[in-house]
């Protein structure tokens, strides 16, 4: 894949239209919309497919994986209620686009990917764009114990259930956003840790994610 890091007026214009579309689809958080308006999503596409970068669609990034649909990225991010300085664990780095959105909101991001090729690519691309999260390679279905606890955890692949171990890595008051279901479709689940052993769980809309694969997943 040949990446080109040029942000022309045409791409900037397309990005503004994407923000308007997401607003129409119900994304209300202005800071999330601002972040979507700022991060050049076409930087994650081969130049041949730049035309696709600002359509509200998921797109293949190799190794059977996808860059998430912008609406899904905005939806999950909104649910996290990111505050500047929040320590966020992202499970499923993929292209790194979601990582950039979290960092635009001021989060300190720990991100983990299990596909070697994607990991190797993202550790080049993001620093080149000026984003320096903490990158990890491996099975994120167990979270990352050594850096816990986190203010927020976001899972960007579909899980069969909520891994217990992730709940333990949340701070009290912390939020986990995770799609849970079967291979075909998942409900977006948010879990707020209200006490040591006390969790509030809400099930929201239906999505379709690639599977979360690992010891605590598929
Ligand atoms: N937000 C990402 C983006 O916009 O590019 C979405 C990436 S894709 C929908 C989900 C990613 O989760 C894939 O790259 C996949 O390899 C990764 N993944 C699946 N299971 C994983 C696991 N156990 N640990 C870490 N990453 C995992």
From TrEMBL:
Its EC number is 2.1.1.77. The active site is at 68. The keyword Methyltransferase applies. Its main location: cytoplasm. The keyword Membrane does not apply. Keywords: Cytoplasm, Methyltransferase, S-adenosyl-L-methionine, Transferase. One of its GO terms (cellular component) is cytoplasm. Signal peptide: none annotated. It holds the Pfam family PCMT. InterPro entries: PCMT (IPR000682), SAM-dependent_MTases_sf (IPR029063). It catalyses: [protein]-L-isoaspartate + S-adenosyl-L-methionine = [protein]-L-isoaspartate alpha-methyl ester + S-adenosyl-L-homocysteine. It is found in: Cytoplasm. One of its GO terms (molecular function) is protein-L-isoaspartate (D-aspartate) O-methyltransferase activity. One of its GO terms (biological process) is methylation. Belongs to the methyltransferase superfamily. L-isoaspartyl/D-aspartyl protein methyltransferase family. Catalyzes the methyl esterification of L-isoaspartyl residues in peptides and proteins that result from spontaneous decomposition of normal L-aspartyl and L-asparaginyl residues. It plays a role in the repair and/or degradation of damaged proteins. NCBIfam families: pimt (TIGR00080), PRK00312.1 (NF001453). This is Protein-L-isoaspartate O-methyltransferase. It comes from Albibacterium bauzanense.
């Amino acid at each position: 894949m040949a990446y080109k890091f040029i942000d022309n007026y045409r791409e900037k214009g397309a990005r503004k239209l994407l923000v308007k579309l997401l607003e129409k689809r119900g994304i209300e958080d202005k800071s999330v919309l601002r972040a979507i308006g700022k991060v050049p999503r076409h930087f994650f596409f081969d130049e041949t497919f730049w035309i696709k970068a600002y359509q509200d669609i998921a797109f293949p990034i190799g190794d059977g994986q996808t860059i998430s649909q912008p609406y899904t990225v905005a939806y999950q991010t909104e649910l996290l209620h990111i505050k500047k300085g929040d320590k966020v664990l992202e499970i499923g780095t993929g292209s790194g686009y979601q990582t950039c959105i979290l960092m635009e909101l001021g989060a300190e991001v720990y991100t983990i990917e299990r596909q070697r090729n994607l990991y190797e690519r993202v550790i080049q691309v993001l620093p080149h764009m000026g984003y320096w999260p903490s990158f990890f390679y491996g099975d994120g279905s167990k979270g990352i114990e050594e850096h816990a606890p986190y203010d927020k955890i976001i899972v960007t692949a579909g899980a069969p259930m909520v891994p217990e171990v992730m709940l333990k890595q949340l701070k009290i008051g912390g939020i986990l956003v995770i799609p849970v279901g079967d291979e075909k479709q998942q409900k977006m689940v948010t879990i707020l840790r209200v006490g040591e052993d006390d969790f509030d769980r809400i099930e929201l809309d239906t999505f379709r994610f690639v599977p979360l694969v690992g010891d605590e997943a598929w």
